[in-house]
Design goal:
It comes from Dreissena polymorpha (Zebra mussel). With 404 residues, this protein is mainly alpha-helical. It has helices at residues 6-31, 43-109, 114-148, 151-251, 264-333, 342-403. It is built from six helices and no strands.
């Protein structure tokens, strides 16, 4: 379809009227005299007008530049705020992860501070929820800023940003408190573990000392058996010696006024027997001396074990004092724990009583062993004296036989 122009809408009569009017205007312009020229303006007024126009143009340009700068600054502020919000979101996510990890560790490690930690956890969760709400509000306000670019919204953003900073400060304070509590509890746990390790080491040392004592007792029993065997051998030798003396008395004739010489073979045999007896007695003396040395060594070992047990007693007392101090610190620093069951208290008391009873019993046993060792040493010394007397008697007999 073809569009119609406005002249076609008027029709033929309208177009004729418009042409007539234009012709009348031309005739009027030709018939009327020309208008007089306007008076020339003075030059000062022209300069002032030009200066005013230039100033207006400069002011307009400055205003435009200022508006552009303001817009750029607003856009930069908005971008910076968006970046800050993104960073804050990332920080909040990291803080949430750290908090979750810390809370898991706390739940695994700690049972005493459970109510306080739950309160802290609830506070942190509330704080995080508030932060998320504030971040959502900030995002909404930033969208409004991008849409409206108003100064009032900037003021609101500043206020919200201050609130967010305050909330972050509160969150950091809560985290610091939580970390301090965790560090305190970890230190206490490490101290308790060290004390438990020391107690285990002391118990192992006590067990080793008991084993050493048992071995020493077995050695003492073996030495006693050897000592009894030596006594039996000595008795047998003495019986043999007496029998030989009786044989000598029976075989040798009574000495005449000039004593006849005894038969040479018998004398030689008797001399050989006496020499054998002397050798046996010397061997017995050596064995007894070895026994004495062994008993003295055992005596010294028992003294060392006694000193070690005394040191262990002192260490146990020191550990008990340290445990008491730690318990006092825990009672002063931590909130009051729930009351323990009575069975556990009874078991702990029984264990402490057993330890306190067993250690003096061990000391008494060691003292008894030392006393028995001293008695054995004295007995061995008496036996040595008896053997020396027997040796002297045998030497006298040999001299008598040599004389005959």
């Amino acid at each position: 379809m073809r569009t119609s122009s406005p002249f076609e809408c008027l029709g033929d009569q309208g177009r004729v009227l418009i042409l007539l009017l234009l012709l009348l205007l031309l005739l009027l312009l030709l018939l009327l005299p020309p208008p007089p020229p306007p008076p020339p303006p003075p030059p000062l007024l022209l300069l002032l007008l030009l200066l005013l126009l230039l100033l207006l143009l400069l002011l307009l340009l400055l205003l435009l530049l200022l508006l552009l700068l303001l817009l750029l600054l607003l856009l930069l502020l908005l971008l910076l705020l968006l970046l800050l919000l993104l960073l804050l979101l990332l920080l909040l996510l990291l803080l949430l992860l750290l908090l979750l990890l810390l809370l898991l560790l706390l739940l695994l490690l700690l049972l005493l501070l459970l109510p306080l930690l739950l309160l802290l956890f609830l506070l942190l969760l509330l704080n995080l929820l508030l932060l998320l709400l504030l971040l959502l509000l900030l995002l909404l306000l930033l969208l409004l800023l991008l849409l409206l670019l108003l100064l009032l919204l900037l003021l609101l953003l500043l206020l919200l940003f201050l609130l967010l900073l305050l909330n972050l400060l509160l969150l950091l304070l809560l985290l610091l408190l939580l970390l301090l509590l965790i560090l305190l509890l970890l230190l206490l746990l490490i101290l308790l573990l060290l004390l438990l390790l020391l107690l285990l080491l002391l118990l192992l040392l006590l067990l080793l000392l008991l084993l050493l004592l048992l071995l020493l007792l077995l050695l003492l029993l073996l030495l006693l058996l050897l000592f009894l065997l030596l006594l039996l051998i000595l008795l047998l030798l003495q019986l043999l010696l007496l029998l030989l003396l009786l044989l000598l008395l029976l075989l040798l004739p009574p000495p005449p006024p000039p004593p006849p010489p005894p038969p040479q073979l018998l004398l030689l045999l008797l001399l050989l027997l006496l020499l054998l007896l002397l050798l046996l007695l010397l061997l017995l003396l050596l064995l007894l001396l070895l026994l004495l040395l062994l008993l003295l060594l055992l005596f010294l070992l028992l003294l060392l074990i006694l000193l070690l047990l005394l040191l262990l007693l002192l260490l146990l007392l020191l550990l008990l004092l340290l445990l008491l101090l730690l318990l006092l610190l825990l009672l002063l620093l931590l909130p009051p724990p729930p009351p323990p069951p009575p069975l556990l208290l009874l078991l702990l008391l029984l264990l402490l009583l057993l330890l306190l009873l067993l250690l003096p019993l061990l000391l008494l046993l060691l003292l008894l062993l030392l006393f028995l060792l001293l008695l054995l040493i004295l007995l061995l010394l008496l036996l040595l004296l008896l053997l020396l007397l027997l040796l002297l008697l045998l030497l006298l007999l040999l001299l008598l036989l040599l004389y005959y």
